[in-house]
Write a structure and sequence with these properties.
This protein is of the alpha+beta class and about 800 residues long. It has 23 helices and 25 strands. The chain has 3 domains: about 230 residues, no CATH class; about 110 residues, no CATH class; about 240 residues, no CATH class. Strands 1, 2, 3, 4, 5, 6, 7, 9, 10, 11, 12, 13 and 14 form a 13-stranded mixed sheet that branches. Helix 12 runs antiparallel to helix 14 and helix 22 runs antiparallel to helix 23.
């Protein structure tokens, strides 16, 4: 006989007063109420048996899958949210089917026939078939192993992809053969439980391969068999009668639940959707209507992962609770809180929105995802993942300021600096789980939102020393307040909501409180005020400040940037942040060239849709960008180069962020050439070049692409040779970068024909310049000869970009 019972019933939770207080509106439940579903574990046959009480068939429930353990490389994380959707259990003969309807297609305002036509136009999915084991008075017991002992999350796909999910998390090689081995998988009965409005099932799954890849040994004890835990939640859907979906408006700055609305007429576009938000309803609607601050029926509550160590724990709590003050602008007090997870609670339990502490083998992103009701956009649970590495990156930035700070040290100690960022960071990721998108114009509006990506705002004091006291904003800003008002202000009727939201939006427009999201923040963007990791009222101010700070930090940099007894090789990653201190400001500055500001204007809202950046600002930005790659600006002080040896035994090379071709010797030329490549690449971006052509086609005074390419060549290939050999090497690096970027643009088959023509014309002029060059320096002669060979190959139709010598752009972890 087996030592364990044949069936292990899941535990029915007896709610304590503390746990009841924790429940969200989705799962608020009476003590002693029976669970709506049960799962039993058949250890002997390694099966999952689902008990379906009478009355639970043909009811929609929310099914979510969360990854409970990770790979450690950023591709698969502990606490990573996975697939979710509404499913329904239907009996068909001796089986119960799990059916998932298609909520991306609807006809909400049509009659029954219209709704049926919309539904039948697209497929639904039967995601599982479960044989009935027993039928007792209408209560069915079915074999649900195909649901729970399966790769519902998609771990095998993640292992096949192999790389990181974003940022700079260390990645492992991808392979294509991992498969689930059910014989090495099982359900965990201790974490498989039932509650009145949710059932939790915890599966331990092993994935095997015959083609284990070298390099994964550091992530798993045996790369041939890797075990992950997946957590299923089956959740009773919230009552839609108590919740009014808020129509999606692109100006609000919210993520949304989108669908095809096939009930729209010929004057519509079949686009429908709601913003994603939590349910907040005032306890006292009459007092709320009088303008009093009122508590919600149920506050939004998040819980701290017990694994979060001090001092981060309190920083996470403080940063998260910034939102409590913001919600007061929407009329609610005590509407948001961050609490400790109750003792004995499972962080995977759907009743708890979590702030998870995530370890990886290298730096990576923190993420703020949530699960929502597909019918309405109502958020029902959040699982925020906070990267454990981020403070190490912040420490590197802080340590780079130590040598320039003098004997008294930096104006802010390392812990205060790191925790200031952590408070902001927590508020940011929670903001996503409240429904908010990124807002990358906030940095130019007095840091108006925690939803921007902040770079530490470091200034120089009157003595010329770095001042870190205002590195990060200590609280939310004007956009956060406006967005929460738009998303969470409660209205008693639809008519009042329409009028009220219009008034709130008009107030934001009148005060010029702005929002622009991720799509337009990339390096090829047109709006100079919209860039990740950039701080300052304008990019001109940001470049001036950050370049001045960079120069001070570079000139002072020495071994004081590391602690006594640490390997000198660690100076490599500290100096990387110093040298590239102004890089994001330079990226923002490039957006003046061919620049265009814009708003997400709707007809009649009074906003100006687009505005071309004045030509004087475009030319000023071009000159400042080329100033930034002048040989003197690119040159690394020799004393710094001589301080940095290769990594000693026992230290990972992944802490060598500045790599090059010198092997053991610090490669300052590749570092400078990479920055020159980056800056010229910004200027000669394909979309940016096209905007210059478009603008010049309608404005005779506009900055032209030919003027831009001529300036680049004149400031690089036309510059006088410096006397300093190190600066000569940097001039050659910038010249090489200019040639590579022009060749790339001229040969880009996706570029506008006029763009390719302008780049081609500039290359012809450069060819003539090089043919007439008078050179006395042997290295410069060889450098020019190589350039002429590459030009000849290009004009002969034999250009192969991978064969050309080019400098890699240094990639750093997110700050």
């Amino acid at each position: 006989m087996p030592s364990a019972p044949l069936f292990r019933p899941i535990r029915l939770f007896a709610a304590t007063a503390v746990a009841l207080q924790a429940l969200s509106p989705l799962v608020l439940q009476a003590q002693g109420e029976a669970p709506f579903l049960r799962v039993r574990v058949d250890d002997t046959r390694n099966r999952a048996l689902l008990e379906i009480p009478a009355g639970q068939l043909n009811k929609d429930v929310l099914h979510t899958v969360t990854l409970a353990t990770g790979l450690g490389n950023g591709a698969l994380d502990r606490g990573q949210t996975g697939p979710s959707g509404i499913v329904r259990l239907e009996r068909r003969g001796n089986r119960v089917l799990m059916v998932r309807d298609n909520w991306t297609v609807r006809a909400p305002n049509g009659d029954a026939a219209n709704q049926r036509a919309a539904t039948e136009a697209f497929p639904r999915s039967i995601v599982a078939s479960m044989p009935i084991e027993k039928d007792t008075a209408g209560t069915l017991i079915v074999d649900a192993s195909s649901v729970f002992l399966a790769d519902a999350y998609g771990v095998a796909d993640g292992l096949r992809a192999g790389g990181s999910a974003g940022g700079t998390a260390a990645s492992a090689p991808g392979v294509g053969s991992y498969r689930l081995d059910v014989a090495r998988s099982y359900l965990d009965p201790e974490r498989t439980r039932a509650f009145p409005r949710n059932a939790e099932v915890h599966a331990v799954l092993t994935f095997v391969t015959d083609q284990a890849v070298r390099g994964r040994g550091g992530l798993a004890p045996d790369a041939r068999a890797m075990t992950f835990e997946q957590h299923h939640s089956l959740i009773v859907l919230p009552d839609t009668a108590g919740y009014t979906p808020r129509q999606y408006d692109p100006r609000f700055g919210y993520g949304g639940t989108s669908f095809f609305d096939l009930s729209k007429g010929f004057d519509g576009d079949y686009r429908g959707g709601f913003i994603n938000r939590w349910r907040l309803v005032p306890k006292d609607p009459a007092a709320y209507a009088r303008g009093e601050l009122v508590e919600p029926v149920t506050p939004i509550t998040y819980y701290l992962d017990p694994g979060i160590p001090a001092p981060y724990r309190e920083a996470f709590r403080e940063g998260g609770n910034w939102w409590a003050k913001v919600y007061e602008a929407a009329g609610f007090k005590n509407a948001f809180r961050v609490l400790d997870l109750p003792a004995g609670a499972d962080p995977m339990d759907a009743r708890y929105s979590m702030l998870m502490w995530v370890h990886r083998s290298g730096p990576g992103p923190s993420v703020g995802p949530s699960y929502s009701d597909p019918r309405t956009g109502e958020i029902v649970r959040a699982v925020v993942r906070m990267d454990a590495w981020r403070s190490l990156i912040d420490y590197n930035i802080w340590a780079g300021t130590v040598p320039a700070s003098g004997s008294s040290g930096p104006t802010v100690d390392a812990e205060a600096f790191a925790l200031a960022r952590r408070r902001q960071h927590t508020a940011h990721e929670i903001g996503h789980t409240l429904g908010l998108q990124h807002n990358y114009i906030a940095s130019a509006q007095n840091r108006s939102s925690v939803m921007d990506y902040p770079f530490p705002l470091i200034t120089l004091d009157a003595s010329g020393r770095p001042d870190l006291r205002n590195a990060y904003r200590n609280g939310p800003g004007a956009w956060d307040t406006l967005a929460i008002r738009l998303g969470y202000t409660w209205f008693p009727t639809p008519a009042a909501e329409r009028t009220g939201l219009a008034a709130i939006m008009a107030d934001g427009i009148a005060k010029n409180v702005r929002f622009i999201n991720d799509t337009y923040a990339n390096a090829n963007g047109s709006n100079p005020l919209v860039t990740r990791w950039e701080e300052g009222s304008t990019p001109f101010e940001a470049v001036q400040r950050s370049a001045a700070v960079r120069r001070v930090l570079m000139n002072s940099f020495d071994e004081r940037a590391i602690k006594p007894g640490e390997p000198m090789a660690l100076l490599n990653m500290r100096f990387a942040h110093v040298y590239l201190h102004h890089r994001y400001s330079l990226e923002a500055l490039s957006k003046y060239i061919g620049g265009m500001d814009f708003t997400f204007a709707l007809r009649g809202d009074g906003q100006t849709p687009t505005r071309i950046v004045p030509v004087a600002e475009q030319r000023k930005a071009l000159n400042q960008l080329l100033d930034a790659i002048a040989p003197k600006e690119l040159t690394v002080p020799e004393k710094v180069q001589r301080l940095i040896p290769p990594p000693p035994p026992g230290f990972n090379t992944d802490q060598t962020w500045i790599e090059g071709s010198g092997e053991t010797m610090f490669d300052a030329i590749t570092l400078g050439g990479g920055l020159a490549t980056e800056v010229i690449g910004y200027i000669l971006d394909r979309e940016r070049a096209a905007r210059l052509v478009h603008t010049a086609a309608s404005d005779a005074k506009a900055l032209t692409l030919s003027e831009v390419t001529d300036a680049i060549v004149r400031r690089t290939w036309g510059a006088a040779l410096p006397a300093n050999p190190a600066e000569r090497a940097m001039l050659r690096a910038s010249q090489r970068a200019a040639l590579d970027m022009l060749l790339d643009l001229a040969g880009d088959g996706r570029a506008l024909p006029d763009v390719r023509a302008a780049a081609m014309h500039e290359l012809r002029k450069l060819e003539t310049r090089l043919a007439r060059a008078i050179v006395t320096d042997d290295m410069q002669r060889a450098h020019i000869e190589t350039a002429r060979v590459d030009l000849d190959r290009f004009f002969d139709g034999d250009d192969q970009p991978t064969r050309r010598p080019r400098f890699p752009v240094i990639v750093l972890p997110w700050p």
